TrEMBL record:
It comes from Dillenia turbinata. One of its GO terms (biological process) is L-tyrosine catabolic process. The keyword Metal-binding does not apply. Keywords: Aminotransferase, Transferase. CDD domains: AAT_like. This is Aminotransferase, class I/classII. Residues 2-144 form the Aminotransferase class I/classII large domain. Transmembrane segments: none annotated. One of its GO terms (molecular function) is L-tyrosine-2-oxoglutarate transaminase activity. The lineage of its organism: Eukaryota, Viridiplantae, Streptophyta, Embryophyta, Tracheophyta. The keyword Transferase applies. InterPro entries: Aminotransferase_I/II_large (IPR004839), PyrdxlP-dep_Trfase (IPR015424), PyrdxlP-dep_Trfase_major (IPR015421). It comes from the Eukaryota.
Length: 182
């Protein structure tokens, strides 16, 4: 049902094999960061951002590098900051779209630049999209798709259902996710 619902906003159909139900988005963050944890690995977190990423990274011994957002450009990613911080041990970068606490909604063009930067650096983009239903105005929400939660989407406290969604054609994350939930 989640794959079908999320596919409504995409130009392709998600497979249920790419959806991993969790007890809320918090558990999805925990599972993904645990899978990315390797000795010496680091992760790029946005500043300002959601503090649970930093706490979970510390729990998993992932070194944290904070990249800046550009308030004068609608809180877009500062690509110079990302490039300066990334190194051979960087495994991923987190984006939050729509942004919390800044309220930004990234354009398709900006997300395309994020994807190209990640490809160039050889890292995964963790896209936290739990506020995707709160995009208003001239900048429509453009899904990238990783984390979602029904709790924030439908205002149903106590319904602890979240999900990471993978776009993982080589099955690298999916294999680890499968065994994490088994």
């Amino acid at each position: 049902a989640v794959a079908e619902h999320l596919s409504q906003d995409l130009p392709y159909k998600l497979s249920p094999d790419n959806i991993y139900p969790t007890l809320g988005c918090t558990q999805a963050i925990e599972v993904i960061l645990t899978l990315l944890s390797n000795p010496g690995a680091n992760i790029l977190l946005l500043r300002p951002g959601f503090p649970h990423y930093e706490a979970q990274a510390a729990f998993n011994n992932l070194e944290v590098h904070h990249y800046d957002l550009l308030p004068e450009k609608g809180w877009e990613v500062n690509f110079d900051s990302v490039e300066a911080l990334a190194d051979k041990n960087t495994v991923a970068m987190v984006i939050i779209n729509p942004g919390n606490p800044c309220g930004s909604v990234y354009s398709y063009e900006h997300l395309e630049k994020v994807a190209k930067m990640a490809k160039k650096l050889g890292i995964i983009v963790i896209a936290d999209e739990v506020y995707d239903h709160l995009a208003f105005g001239s900048n429509p929400f453009v899904p990238v798709g990783v984390f979602g939660s029904i709790v924030l989407r439908r205002v149903v406290p106590g319904w602890w259902l979240g999900w990471p969604v993978t776009n993982d054609p080589n099955g690298i994350l999916g294999h680890g996710l499968y065994f994490s939930f088994k």
